[in-house]
Amino acid sequence: MPVLQVQGLTTHYRTMRGWVKAAENVSFDVAEGEALGIAGESGCGKSTVALSLLKILPQGGVIRKGKILFEGRDLVPLSEEEMRKIRWKGISIVFQGAMNALNPVIKVGEQIAEAIKTHEKDVSGSDVKDRVAKLLETVGIEPSRADNYPHEYSGGMRQRALIAMALAVNPTLLIGDEPGTALDVIVAAQTLKLLKELKDKLGLSMILISHDLSIIAETCEKVAIMYAGKIVEYGDAVSVFKNPLHPYTQGLIKAFPSIKGPKVRLTSIPGQPPDLLNPPSACRFHPRCPYIMDVCKIEEPLLLEHGEKLHRAACHLY
Ligand code: SF4
Question: Which of these, 46, 113, 180, 305, has the minimum number of CB atoms within 10 Å of its CB?
Fold first, then answer.
């Protein structure tokens, strides 16, 4: 059984102007030890999906439909108290712009210790200390640096400390929401390498949310491409990147430079992502699609299987 099965997740935000349809009928699953990448332009709903999984949506955010089956149990109807037991221990998250998530006046080691003590009441003081040292070591930080304050860490170290914190109580599933985005490219690459190593070493299941396809291609076995709140293509990462079916995925891939492949001119996708208060009818990509047909404005394309490996696309071309 997959660790996580998301079925028809629909999350909207209530605003003065109406409902913003941020995630619509989103379905995917993550197996044990597997990494799923969720990609798309900013505002496509990928972070909304992550926040929905932990039920930590900002004000106005409501899960209107769907199921989030974590280890077989639906999280959607759970109370806040029940969710607190799932967060960190079951599903843990490393946020985008994580630099500001550490408390500047508390030593890093103490902050990690606090995460352990909050979720495991019976653990002794010396055990906590040992675990903090081991966690820091796991993420490549010298354990003696536990006694430093966050400002004494470099940007990359702070990001690593946050990953250590997210791993503090051995979660089953780790979500990285644009990890490393706020860092320079070298540190961002190191952060990613670390996540990949941790996944292999600890057998973690992972969801990596990123606008950067190269990050996902390197780290994940499976990928979901989101556009305007919906998954438009989903499947085995190699199959999707080698043979993208949806015109949006094709456009995204063309917009990214390849280090290994031949030099080609990068092209951007013309037009802007739509306003999710009032999204386009049927296929939400139709105002930007070079292959638009009459049916695309009238009938919503379903996410259907194409190919031998897991590879689904929602497009009337197929
Ligand atoms: Fe383009 Fe039509 Fe396919 Fe949408 S369904 S991506 S508009 S061809």
Answer: 305
